[in-house]
Write a structure and sequence with these properties.
Length: 211
């Protein structure tokens, strides 16, 4: 079968995934085979189905895979990228592409530490840290402020690295799975904290654990 692809979309080097729902999609085994199949180039739905069923442990019908594809399109993770014109046919096929060559997770936790749900986590943290330090439980407000400072700064620094160096990051990480990229991002966040202790001096000081 002879055909010609007319591609109208060039994927970005990196898509920073900041939304938890999008993060859940790109790590869901129902959806990841689509993203893997589209890693090399834009494809029509039939080729996506073939790639999906080679990659996935569970074979799925075209209808199901098409519905998953629409979910990814709604979230901006996959886009329509052109047309495939087949010799001898009047109808063309839609080509689909990843929005970016790499997806990097930077789920900002700042909002979490302001929720009611976080209160229980902080209370448990107070007591666990008390066991570690041998001191009284830390002030809840100060601990919350410290966690906000810690996570929001580290996450924003990592996002900045990705966004300012997309070509280099893509070159370094193109062979990694999304789960590996997520672990890498968490590692870099930890190193950012360790390499910038002065940034946290004030919020740590308020905790009173280094006195």
């Amino acid at each position: 079968m002879e055909y010609q692809d007319f591609i109208t979309y060039e994927p970005e080097q990196i898509c920073i995934v900041r939304d938890q729902f999008k993060f859940d999609l790109v790590t869901d085994p129902k959806y990841t085979p689509i993203l893997i199949a589209l890693r090399a180039k834009p494809l029509p739905i039939k080729d996506i189905v073939d790639g999906y069923n080679r990659i996935s442990d569970k074979t799925r019908k075209q209808t199901s895979i098409y519905n998953y594809l629409q979910d990814l399109i709604k979230q901006g993770l996959v886009v329509k990228a052109g047309q495939r014109v087949i010799t001898g046919k009047t109808a063309s096929e839609v080509l689909y592409s990843r929005c970016a060559k790499l997806y990097f997770p930077v789920i900002l936790s700042e909002s979490f530490w302001k929720t009611e749900e976080s209160k229980n986590v902080i209370k448990k943290s107070q007591h666990l840290l008390s066991l570690y330090t041998g001191q009284e439980a830390l002030d809840e407000s100060n601990l919350r402020s410290f966690l906000l400072d810690l996570f929001s700064n580290a996450e924003k620094e990592v996002a900045d690295i990705f966004e300012k160096n997309p070509d280099k990051v893509n070159e370094l990480c193109s062979d990694l799975t999304f789960e590996q990229i997520d672990r890498l991002a968490r590692l870099i966040e930890t190193l950012v904290v360790l390499l910038n202790p002065q940034h946290y001096e004030e919020s740590i000081g308020k905790l009173g654990i280094l006195n």
